Amino acid sequence: MPKKIALVTGASSGIGRAAAVALAQQGFKIIAAGRRTERLQELVDQFGPDQVLPLAFDVRDHAAVQAAIASLPAAWKTIDVLINNAGNAHGLSPIQTGDIADWDAMLDINVKGLLYVTREVLPVMVERKSGHVINIGSIAGKEAYANGNVYCASKFAIDALSKAMRIDLVHEGVKVSEINPGAVETEFSEVRFKGDTERAANVYKGFEPLRAEDIADLLVFMVTRPKHVNIAEVLILPAAQASATIINKQ
Ligand code: NDP
Ligand code: 8X3
After folding, report:
1. What pTM was estimated for this model as a whole?
2. Domain residues of the chain, as ranges?
3. Closest ligand 2 atom to the C-alpha of 140?
């Protein structure tokens, strides 16, 4: 039986990196996507070039996404699992003072980037009547919170797209799932606060946040269910978190 192939976007950091490692440990071949090529190369060094193929592109650049997927060697074209994970928050400001570049980044990466990658990967899945797309949404796609406005909107869009993709693809033999995590300690807050590491660290102080590996465990479970089972949607929170803003901090 040939090894299954998983394309993980945002494999250079956090949840995506943990997912790439966990799936590689399960025997999947991994197409590791991201912009920081040196980070992708670390995965190749860890698992070897037969198991990890680095694919560097910016998800915002439609032509680059097309070219990257088209460039896959024949043995890597039959993608079984697509994990749409690349994304970030940029800033945390009231809507009236929001930064336009931040808004563009969040909508271009989190929403349009996910669409661009999915559009390029789906034709082979549909042709093979087999595949699994897992979108990484967020609790921010279930509840809006103060100053989260455009990030929340981008994740609400992923929630809508996940449901819509499932409807369109149910006739094509392709599963669509969505994972909505609460607070996971990754580079997420460093990116949101533009490199302010102290402010980023404060987000996770006083409680035990999820680790990227917790989301990777869930991903492994979801992609190893029998063919007739689809875990369609999961909200996964730290035990100390009850909602987007209610966290039991000590
Ligand atoms: P990280 O910042 O650690 O990782 C983000 C990943 O996205 C990086 O690998 C980065 O790679 C990639 N990425 C960002 N922009 C682009 C781009 N333009 N083109 C290609 N890749 C890009 O954050 P997380 O691991 O936490 O975030 C992963 C996903 O999880 C995101 O969608 C986030 O919204 C979601 N999420 C995170 C939560 C959290 O609390 N951490 C909670 C809920 C959801 P590179 O910079 O190399 O391109
Ligand atoms: C990341 C979690 O609550 O910071 O999506 O928006 S939150």
Report:
1. 0.98
2. 5-236
3. 6
